[in-house]
Amino acid sequence: MARTLVLFAHPAYQKSRIHRRMVGAVPTDDRLTFHDLYEAYPDLAIDVHREQRLLEAHDTVVLQFPFYWYSTPPIFKQWFDLVLEHGWAYGSKGTALHGKTVVCALSAGGGEGAYCTEGYNRYTIPQFLAPIERTAVLCGMRWLPPWVIYGTHSLDTSTIEARAAEYGAMLEWLMDGGAATADPDPNEILNRWLRAKGIAATEEVRS
After folding, report:
1. Cα(77)–Cα(39) distance, integer angstroms
2. What are the tens digits of pLDDT across the range 130-141?
3. Helix locations, the chain, DSSP H
4. 52: number of CA atoms within 13 Å, CB side?
5. Using CA atoms, how far apart are residues 59 and 146, in angstroms rounded to an integer?
6. Would the pTM of this model clear 0.70, i.e. be above it?
C-alpha cells in the first residue's frame, strides 16, 4: 500500500475539458488525498507547515496540472520555493522526503509529435520537466516519468473519458504499491509504459 497525495493546480479549472474529467476519475479511497492548491490558497498565501505535514503523511506525490508555457501553473513554482525548505526537504539534515515517489500527471495541447527533437517544440515533455526532476532528486525522492495526455485541443468526449479512466486506474496502481517495483526509462511516458505492461489501462484505451 502507498498513501498517495494528488497536488492539483489549474488556474482556470471551471473552463477545463480535460482536468475536470481527470479529477472526476480520482478514486475515493482512504489511501488517497486530493489537494487543490488554487482552491486551498486563492490568495496564494501557502501554509508551509500544512503542506509539509501532508507530504510527510504520504508515500507518493502526484503533481497534476495543465502544461502552461512549457512548465507548471505559477502556484507550483511558489509551492516549490516555500515548502521545500533547506533542512527539511534537502541539505544534510533535510531528509523528510527521502524514499518517497513523485510523478507529474499533465495535459498538453500539442500532439506527441510536437514534443521531440524533430517536432515544433524541439524537446520532449520529460526534457521540459527536468527542473522538477532535479528538484525531486535533490530531495531524495524517486522520480517516475510523466503521465501525459497529448493533443487535448482535438480530443473528443469519448477519448477524454477514456483517458480520465486510465488516470484513475494509474492512481489505483500507485496506491497498490505498483511504483515500488516499476523500472520505466525516465525518458518514457508513464501511461505508454503502463499500457505496454498491461497495467492501469482501461479496455476502451487498449482498443
Report:
1. 16
2. 999 999 999 999
3. 19-24, 37-40, 48-56, 74-83, 125-128, 130-138, 157-175, 190-197, 203-206
4. 17
5. 17
6. yes
